[in-house]
Amino acid sequence: MVLASRFTDRAGKGIRTAPRDAIIAASTRPERLGLSFGFHRAMDTAGAVVGPAAALAILAAWASDYRLVFWLSLVPGIVAVALIVRFIESDGTVSQRHALPSWSFRSFDTRFWEFLLVVGLFSLGNSSNAFLILKAEQVGTSPAWISGMYLAFNGVYALVSLPAGMLADRLGMKRMIAGGFGLFAAVYAGFALAVTPWHIAGLFVAYGVYMGLTEGVQRAYLATLIPAERMATGFGLYHMVVGLAILPASLIAGALWDTVGPASPFWFSAASAALAAGAFVAISTPRSAKA
Predict the structure, then answer these.
(1) What is the rounded CA–CA span in Å between residue 38 and residue 110?
(2) How far apart are CA 50 and CA 239, in angstroms?
C-alpha cells in the first residue's frame, strides 16, 4: 500500500508540474518571468520547511501518531484543489478541435532543443541529495546536525529564490543560469574535498544558494523558448528530460561511490556541471558573435 501510494503521488506530480509551470508563464508579462518563477520556488520551498516542521510538532504532541499526520496532510491538498477550481481560469488557448494531443514538435525551434540537451547533460550529474547526506555521515556529522543542515539548505533556497528571480529579470537569465551551473560545480567539488562537519554545513548553505539562483530562473528562461500555444508541452518535455536523467545519475553516483570512493560521485557531478556551463554559454552566444 505504501508503494502504491508513492507511485500515485509521483504520478500526480508528473501530471500537475508542466501545466502549473505553463499557467505561471501564461499569467506573467515576459519581463517579469524571473520574478514569477522565483516567487513560486520560494513558496514551494517554504512549504518544504513548514510542512515537516508541522509534522514534527504533531508527532511530538500526539505520541508518534503517523496516521494522524497523513490524515491532516489531506487538508492543505484539498484547500489547494479548491483554490484551483475557484480562481484558476482557462487562458483560452486550448483548441477544442483535437480529441487527442498533437505529437508534432515542429513548432519548437533549435534553441529549445539545445537547451534541453544542456539540461540533460547537467541532470546526468545531478544525483540524489541522499549522497550529500551519506557524505555528511561519512565525515562524522550527527543525525541531528544533518537534519539541521538540510533545514538550513531549504531555508536558504526559499530566501534566495525571489531576489534571484528579480535579479535575473534585470541582469539577464542566461548569466544567472551559467553562473548557477558554475556554482554547482564548485559546491560539488567542495563536497568531494570536505573532511569535517563544518565543511559540510557551509556547503549545504552554498547548495541552497545555487538552488535559489537557478531553479526558478531555468524555468523562466525556458518559457521564453516555447511557443505560447505549446507551453505545457514544452514544460512537459523539460521535466521528462530531467526525470529520465535522475535514475542513471544516481546509479552512476552509487557505482562510483562503491567502486572508486566516496569523493568520486561528487567529482563526476562537478565535471558534468562544468561541461553543461560551457555548453550553455556556447549555445546562448548569438550566432553572429560566433561567426
Answers:
(1) 26
(2) 25
Please tell me what DSSP assigns to residue 31. G
Contact 72, 58 (CB under 8 A): yes
Q: How far is CA 7 from CA 26, 183, 249, 251, in A?
A: 29, 33, 20, 20
CA 225, 231, 233, 238 dihedral sign is positive
What is the pLDDT tens value at each position of the chain, 291 positions in all? 889 998 998 899 889 999 999 999 998 999 999 999 999 999 999 998 898 888 888 888 888 788 898 899 999 999 999 998 888 876 555 555 555 666 778 889 899 999 999 999 999 999 999 999 999 999 999 988 998 898 899 999 999 999 999 999 999 999 999 999 999 999 999 999 999 999 999 999 999 999 999 999 999 999 999 998 899 999 999 999 999 998 899 999 999 999 999 999 999 999 999 999 999 999 987 755 444
d(CA 154, CA 188): 17
Using CA atoms, how far residue 200 sits from 42, 142, 161, 236, in Å, is: 23, 12, 22, 34
- Which domains, from first to last, does the chain contain? 15-90+108-284 (1.20.1250.20)
In DSSP notation, 252-281 reads HHHHHHHHT-TTHHHHHHHHHHHHHHHHHH
CA distance 134 to 262: 9
Contact 254, 264 (CB under 8 A): no
pTM of the prediction? 0.88
> Are 252 and 265 spatial neighbours (Cβ–Cβ below 8 Å)?
yes
| Residues 139/196, Cβ–Cβ less than 8 Å | yes
Q: Compute the distance between CA of residue 201 and CA of residue 49 in angstroms, rounded to an integer.
A: 17
